[in-house]
Amino acid sequence: MNYSKAPTPTKPFWDLTVPEISQWIHTLTPGIPNTGGMLFPVAVKPSAAGATIPPPNQEQFATKMALGELLVRNLMTALSSASTFGSNSGGGVPEAKRQKIDHNTINNNGGGDKFKVLDPSFAQSNNKNSSTTTKNSNNTSELSPGAILSRITLGGLVNGMSGVEGGCVDTLSCIPLSDLQKDHHQVVDPSSATTKGIDAVIDTAGNLILKDLIKLARGLLRSISAR
């Protein structure tokens, strides 16, 4: 898909689907500091009419583009996973008034929030939704991908972009999980991506260092807050 020519989604943020969220991220102006545009590089303009981009710059541009696409893909996978959180068995047809998650028609394989993008308030609100459903909206919740992203914390965003199952930071504080485990004197797996704290290399995020991933996530979070 050519994202540069794609229109920016105009629906309320909480109603956006996974493809629409991805589309919105791709419409952010590349390279703008402290925004989601940092995910993608600025295209190198030729120095003269008809001139080509030098090979080293082409490689660097392609590498940064591939990294940005990987991080967005990780996040979309995490949002899809988290939107099934709290699903259960049973019948029912969702109402069509608002976008809701029908736990009978989505991929209900028990995956849940395996990338840890949801903070505890999501689970609490989802339980409230479940307890107040009617016969017409049984087994549904409003935990849509857009609703998740509109309320996501920095820690949740870092976890989603990392692609690490179980997450690599605390959802609320964004403290590396290894640091929290050390504080609680828990045994840490030396092969885990979280064992080096803020300097951990996240292989599922293109071998980014955790502190650099946090910077990118913070920029994207600012863009989310500003939308």
Description:
The chain has 227 residues and is mostly helical. The chain is 39% helix and 4% strand. The protein has helices at 18-26, 55-82, 120-131, 145-151, 154-162, 177-183, 210-226; strands at residues 101-102, 140-141, 201-202, 208-209. The strands form 2 sheets. The protein has a two-stranded antiparallel ribbon with strand order 1-2. The longest helix is centred in the first third of the chain and has 28 residues, at 55-82.
Write a short abstract of this structure.
By secondary structure, the chain is mainly α. It has helices at residues 18-26, 55-82, 120-131, 145-151, 154-162, 177-183, 210-226; strands at 101-102, 140-141, 201-202, 208-209.
Look at the structure and give the mean pLDDT: 76
Strand order across the biggest sheet? 1-2
Q: Low-confidence stretches at least 5 residues in length (pLDDT < 50)? A: 88-110, 129-141, 190-195
Distance between the ends = 23 Å
Instruction: Tell me the number of strands.
Output: 4
Name the helicity range.
25-40%
* Number of H- or I-type helical stretches: 7
Sheet with the most strands? 2 strands, antiparallel
Inertia-based shape: globular
Rg of Cα set: 19 Å
How are helices and strands ordered from N to C? HHEHEHHHEEH
What fraction strand?
A: under 5%
What structural category do the secondary elements indicate? mainly alpha
